[in-house]
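Let's practice the habit of predicting before peeking. Look at the sequence and jot down your guess about where helices and strands might fall. Then scroll down.
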Amino acid sequence: MDVMQLLVALTTVPVMLGLVIESASTVGIPTVIGSSGRPRSGRVVHYNGGPLTWGSHANCRAQVRQMHAYHRARGWAGIGYHLLICWHGVVLTGRGIYRVGAHAPGANASHVGVQFMLGGSQRPSAAQLAAFVALAAWLAARGVKASVTGHRDWNSTSCPGDHLYRRVRSGDWGSGDSGDRSVPPAPTFSYWTVAGVRVPTGDPWLLRGMRGTPVLRLQEGLKKWRPSLLPQYGADGSFGQETEDAVEALQRARGIRIDGVYGTESAAELRRALSSSASKPSGPDPLVVDGRLGELTAKAVQRALQVEDDGVWGPVTVRAMQLRCGLRGRAVDGILGPQTTRAVQRRVGLTSRAVDGIWPSVRAVSKAGIVTLNSGVVSQTTRELQKTVNARRF
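Done guessing? Here is the structure:
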């Protein structure tokens, strides 16, 4: 074990005056991501693109965890950056400098990817600049060359933004005496008005530990969508465990990644759910026949099957579906696979050519039989299912 490996095994490591490096385990991401490597040809500077919210350092760690989840959702091994520098001047370990990165094609194996945790028109803080300078010396002691390039030097992108890129070109990183010393400005939040409430668009993210009007508007939107949510504290403007649970309930019901963070994907689903609720006539559903397998369709199918209409398709729902579609014996296993999908397709009247056992609206089925829905996909099977449920023929 060399010095770097020993350091990242610790929790929060003060390396030298003005530089603090936190290990991946302290940040809350895996300590081994991707394949081993030794990028030593220099650093590539990145930024987030969209502005990030600031607050306690716990919020910085949460944002890195969200980036890790987002990169995994894109099919990568995990977060692509080797290191990240937050507003407070703390270096957070991503992959670490002994792994191949996933930050800039052409530089992943040779260069250390360093992200400044900011975006949009946000400027680096004095603490970030000081940490970047101190990090250069720390990396040099481990064989990393002094070369600094921007992401746009490698790929067609606006990253790392004009301000940081001017510093890349000039080599002027200051000594910690430059940069914005003020309290970080609150990023501008935008909203949609839907079903009589204003809901945040999800950029910047909202996550646990945050407070203020954007959180209040999110909570009001969640209560409008499902009044039973937030039973203890209601819409109080504080993003705590109860709000995180409510966001996860939305994500689970809409078939998207469940992480409790309110980003653009969650915002789009909340907007869609509220729009559907606002247009829903009184009395039993008639479903909007749009081919999207979201919460309303999932619940309507459960009511047609006379099982609990919680919007979550598990073995009980699937077993009832299998029986309704004529399957018997071992085929009634509570697992939504190709055989069950073909039975559903025949039940809703698809032509023999269209009965292929493929249902794009189903993202995944866990080993326990829990179905993850993909409400963003339009499917012919779902469209015909909605028609059949509306006609009370399912």
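How did you do? The first strand starts at residue 12 and ends at 16.
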